[in-house]
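TASK: fixed-backbone design
INPUT:
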C-alpha cells in the first residue's frame, strides 16, 4: 500500500512544491491547512491573512489532485505560543515564538493529529533534510542545501529557494509567485511594539549612556526593547546613533552605547535552559564528556559559530563561543550543530 502522508499546507509555495514532489513519488498525500489565528485579538486581525492562505492551499490541492482538509488549533496556539510570547517579553526576554510554534503546534499537535487519523508520516515545506543512520538506528536532522533559507528546526531540504520557485512554475502551481511569508508564525507581519503595547503597560524608566553613566532620556519599559535595537529610543542629535547594549530589568534601566558594534553589545558565554538533543546517541556522548566542541547559531540565518558546550559542576549547561557574538539576548534560542547535523538546542537564560 502507498504510504499516507499528512502534509502541512500553508498556502505558500514551499509546502505546495513539497506536496507535488511527494505525490509524484507515489505517496498518498493529503494537504492539511492549520487554522491557528483569526478574530481581532491584540488588534492584529488585519495582519493575519488566514482566509487567503486557506484558499491558496485548497487551490493547490485541486490543481495537483489531492484531498484537502483544515484543522483548528487556535485555542492551543493562544495558550502555548501567544501567552508564552507575552510572558517572556514581560520578563525582559526576547523570545522566538516560531520555535515554540514548531515545538507545540507543527511538530506536536499536528503530528498527534496525523497519528490519530492513521497516517504514516507528516511532511512540511521547511528547508531542512534528514537521513537515517543504519549503524546507529537513528534519524538525523541536517541543514538544508539553501543555507540562506535553512530552517533546521522536510522534503525540499535538498533544494534552494530559486529551484523551488522554478519547480512551482514548472508544475503550474497557482501560488508559484506568492511572496514568502514573514513575521510571527501563523500571524504574519505585525508591528511588534504595537502588538506588545496592546497587553503590556508602559513602565517609564531611565536611559543611561553606558560609557559615561549619564542620563540621556526616558523609555516606556525595558521589555519593549531588545539588545542591538536602534529604532524607537527617541534620542536625537547624535553623530553616531545609540543602540541598546544592556537591560537592567530589576531597576527598569536601559543602557545604550554609540555605534552598531559597541563593545558592550558583545558576549561569549551563555547559560541554557530547556536544552534538548534530537538524537539519544549525541545526548549520551555529551553526558559522558560534559564538554564538547560544536557550532551554534543564536538567530535565523546566522552562520553557525564555533564554541564549546559545557556541563558545569553545578549541572548548569553553558555554551562558550570562541569569538564574541553581537547582540545576544535572553529568551533567544541557541541551536547546536555538528558540521551540518542539527543536534538540538536550548533557550538562553543568562549571558556572561
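OUTPUT:
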Amino acid at each position: 500500500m502507498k504510504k499516507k502522508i499528512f502534509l502541512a499546507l500553508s498556502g505558500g509555495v514551499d509546502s505546495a512544491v513539497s506536496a507535488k514532489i511527494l505525490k509524484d513519488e507515489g505517496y498518498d498525500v493529503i494537504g492539511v491547512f492549520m487554522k491557528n489565528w483569526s478574530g481581532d485579538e491584540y488588534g492584529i486581525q488585519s495582519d493575519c491573512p488566514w482566509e487567503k492562505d486557506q484558499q491558496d492551499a485548497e487551490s493547490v490541492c485541486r490543481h495537483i489532485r489531492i484531498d484537502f482538509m483544515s484543522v483548528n488549533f487556535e485555542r492551543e496556539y493562544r495558550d502555548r505560543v501567544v501567552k508564552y510570547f507575552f510572558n517572556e517579553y514581560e520578563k525582559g526576554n526576547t523570545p522566538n515564538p516560531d520555535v515554540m510554534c514548531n515545538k507545540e503546534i507543527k511538530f506536536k499537535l499536528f503530528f498527534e493529529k496525523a497519528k490519530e487519523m492513521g497516517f504514516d508520516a507528516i511532511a512540511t515545506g521547511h528547508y531542512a533534510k534528514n537521513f537515517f543512520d543504519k549503524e546507529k538506528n537513528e534519524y538525523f536532522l541536517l541543514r538544508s542545501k539553501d543555507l540562506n533559507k535553512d530552517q533546521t528546526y522536510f522534503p525540499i531540504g535538498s533544494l534552494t529557494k530559486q529551484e523551488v520557485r522554478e519547480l512551482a512554475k514548472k508544475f503550474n502551481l497557482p501560488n508559484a509567485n506568492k511572496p514568502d511569508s514573514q513575521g510571527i508564525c501563523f500571524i504574519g507581519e505585525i508591528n511588534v511594539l504595537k502588538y506588545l503595547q496592546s497587553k503590556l503597560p508602559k513602565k517609564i524608566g531611565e536611559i543611561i549612556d553606558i560609557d559615561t553613566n549619564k542620563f540621556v532620556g526616558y523609555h516606556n519599559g525595558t521589555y519593549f526593547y531588545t539588545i542591538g535595537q536602534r529604532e524607537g529610543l527617541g534620542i536625537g542629535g547624535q553623530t553616531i546613533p545609540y543602540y541598546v547594549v544592556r537591560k537592567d530589568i530589576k531597576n527598569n534601566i536601559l543602557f545604550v552605547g554609540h555605534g552598531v558594534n559597541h563593545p558592550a553589545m558583545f558576549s561569549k558565554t551563555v547559560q541554557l535552559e530547556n536544552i534538548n538533543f534530537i538524537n539519544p546517541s549525541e545526548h549520551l556522548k555529551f553526558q559522558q564528556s560534559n564538554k564538547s566542541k560544536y557550532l551554534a547559531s543564536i538567530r535565523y540565518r546566522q552562520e553557525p559559530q564555533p564554541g564549546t558546550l559545557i556541563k558545569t559542576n553545578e549541572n548548569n549547561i553553558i555554551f562558550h563561543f570562541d569569538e564574541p557574538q553581537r547582540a545576544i539576548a535572553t529568551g533567544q534560542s541557541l541551536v547546536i550543530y555538528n558540521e551540518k547535523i542539527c543536534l538540538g538546542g536550548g533557550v538562553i537564560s543568562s549571558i556572561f
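COMMENT: The longest strand covers residues 266-277.
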